[in-house]
């Protein structure tokens, strides 16, 4: 029985499908749902870099708010109330998602994946694969 669901979102099309899946899963299981976005560049990191400035950080924060608001809006339109959302900072996105789920007592993770294989997978890596490898609980990967 699922008691707490975490859905990782980054605003991509596959992430939108994962959000829709997580909303339906939460409704069916009557489980609380939290949307999570990982922020890879912190203000401290940006301050030490000549390539980042406050305008870029502000734009990134606005994008994060947009991603989480879109997920929350879909949940609300689907009749799911009490949805929460969170952000976590981490350089390794997959590990950050798995760690957050473990530390906050989630028993299921939902996320999207582009389904890259072969050389594309080797060059780009796979956040979904990293989450599956690091997670303490079941992970549903939506394509």
From TrEMBL:
Domain of life where this protein originates: Bacteria
Every UspA domain range: 1-143
Database matches in SUPFAM superfamilies: Adenine nucleotide alpha hydrolases-like
InterPro entries: Rossmann-like_a/b/a_fold, Universal_stress_UspA, UspA
Family: Belongs to the universal stress protein A family.
Protein name in the entry: Universal stress protein
Record organism: Benzoatithermus flavus
Organismal lineage: Bacteria, Pseudomonadati, Pseudomonadota, Alphaproteobacteria, Geminicoccales
